[in-house]
Request: fold
Amino acid sequence: MVTLVLADNGLSEVSGKIGSLKMLRMLDLGHNQLTMLPEEIGHLPNLTDFLYLHDSRLTTLPSSFENLSRLRYLNISENSFEVLPECVSRMSGLLELRISDNQLKSLPSSIEHLSRLRELHLRNNYLTSLPDSIGTMHELRLIDLRGNPLTRLPSSIAALPRLEKLDLRWVPSFELPIWIADLEARGCSVYA
Reply:
């Protein structure tokens, strides 16, 4: 089995036996009632394509998820994360990370370890800023910050060489920093 879709099943738990599906490349557990996940998911060596965990009740992830260093797409949107689990920062193969519609108040500076990340979706959280270390994530093409109560953005964002889209819509009373003009001059679309 290469793909397992268990979405929209009202699941409140997942058996640790899922760890026996060693060939699994894509796992969809979205739209369930999960509050925790088994450690065994972090020991699936071929889970490289997609891991959908959106629209559930998760507040944390097993530390074993740091082993998923080849995973390219992770969606943990529409859960109850107040803190980004540290294991996510160790998932070094991620190209796209979706954390929208959670309760994040900040991001750890360790997010810089996601050096291959191209898309970072953070819409509708409680972020007031981003860590300065985000400026070292040179592969970023898109940062979606819609609906966050931002008060500042680190100027290191202006140094992101491949940034194509910075979405700042629905941010109340946020004054755009002066360096935004430099981004736009380079061809980055800034939505405010």
Summary: The beta strands are 3-5, 26-28, 50-52, 73-75, 96-98, 119-121, 142-144, 165-167, 189-191.
